Known about the structure:
Strand 2, helix 2 (46-53) and strand 3 (60-69) form a beta-alpha-beta unit. The two termini are 21 Å apart. The protein has three helices and nine strands. It has a six-stranded mixed sheet with strand order 4-3-2-5-6-7, with helices on both faces. It has helices at 13-30, 46-53, 106-116, and strands at 6-11, 36-42, 60-69, 80-84, 94-102, 122-131, 143-148, 153-154, 170-173. The protein is globular, with a radius of gyration of 16 Å. The chain is α/β, with parallel strands linked by helices. It has a single domain, classed as Rossmann fold (3-Layer(aba) Sandwich), CATH 3.40.50.2020.
Amino acid sequence: xxxxxxxxxxxxxxxxxxxxxxxxxxxxxxxxxxxxxxxxxxxxxxxxxxxxxxxxxxxxxxxxxxxxxxxxxxxxxxxxxxxxxxxxxxxxxxxxxxxxxxxxxxxxxxxxxxxxxxxxxxxxxxxxxxxxxxxxxxxxxxxxxxxxxxxxxxxxxxxxxxxxxxxxxxxxxxxxxxxx
Length: 180
Ligand code: 5GP
C-alpha cells in the first residue's frame, strides 16, 4: 500500500531487492579472497547496508560514520562536519563506503578525502541512488544502484525531517507533505 504522502514510486521494493542482490554478487566477485570493511554513512545508508551486507559472500565487517552538512534540509552545502567517526582503524584495509544517495557529491568528496588520508588498501563507494546530471564534483563511485531524476526522494533510509525512512520503496513526496 502506497503511503498517502507519496506522489509516485520511482523505485519499487522488488526492483531494490533485485538490484541489491546484483550489487552483492558483483562486490563478492570483485573482492574474492579479501575481507571488506563496510562503512555506512548514517543515517540514510543504514537500511541499504543491512540488506547489501547480507548479499555479500566474502567476509565483511561493518562500521559507521555520521556527518552533517550545514544548510537547509533539502539542499547540500558542501560544508561537512563529522558527528561520529569510525571505531575501526582502516590503514591497509579494503574499505567500501556505503551511501544512500549521491546528489552534488560534495559530502562524499569530503568524506573520501578524509578516509584516503588514513591509508586504506583500497577505497571504493557503493551508492543506492545517484541523481542524474547533478554531480558538481567528479566522484569515482564504483557501484551505483539506480540513477534517479533530480527530485527530492524519500524511503529506504532516506528521510524528510526524519520521516519516511521506513518506506520499503523510493518515492517522491506530495508537495502538501512539506507543509506539515
Ligand atoms: P550531496 O553532498 O551529494 O549533495 O548530498 C548527499 C546527501 O544529501 C545524502 O547523503 C542525503 O543525506 C542528502 N540528500 C541528497 N538528495 C536527497 C534526496 O533526494 N532525498 C533525501 N532524503 N536526502 C537527500
